[in-house]
Amino acid sequence: MNNVVQLVVWEVWAFSFALMSVLLVHALTGKLNLSALLMKKEGDRSFSPERVQLLLATVVVATQYLAQVRKDPSHLPEVSQNWLLLLGGSHALYLGRRFYLHKTDKPR
Predict the structure, then answer these.
(1) Which of 16, 18, 83, 87 has its CA 20 to 30 A from that of 44?
(2) Average pLDDT, the chain
(3) What are the structural domain ranges in the chain?
(4) Are 69 and 76 in contact (CB under 8 A)?
């Protein structure tokens, strides 16, 4: 059974590395358009701090979760309430700002 678990772990790592390699190559060659990733969708298309905090919160929570999986790959770990609150709060902040901007853009 230990060999099967080890094989699955290696396959997941190989797939993750291949996926990240493809994304990196596409980002570097321009096939993956990242120019507006951190820009506002509306108005002057300027820098969007809400998008930055959403991206950072997502990356931090995903990295923490993957670190837990790496420690014990035999099962999926539970996500702590603090990490869920961080991610949920980050999404609420982003969506709240989008909702506010959507409501204020409409002519009355």
Answers:
(1) 87
(2) 86
(3) 1-34, 36-108
(4) yes
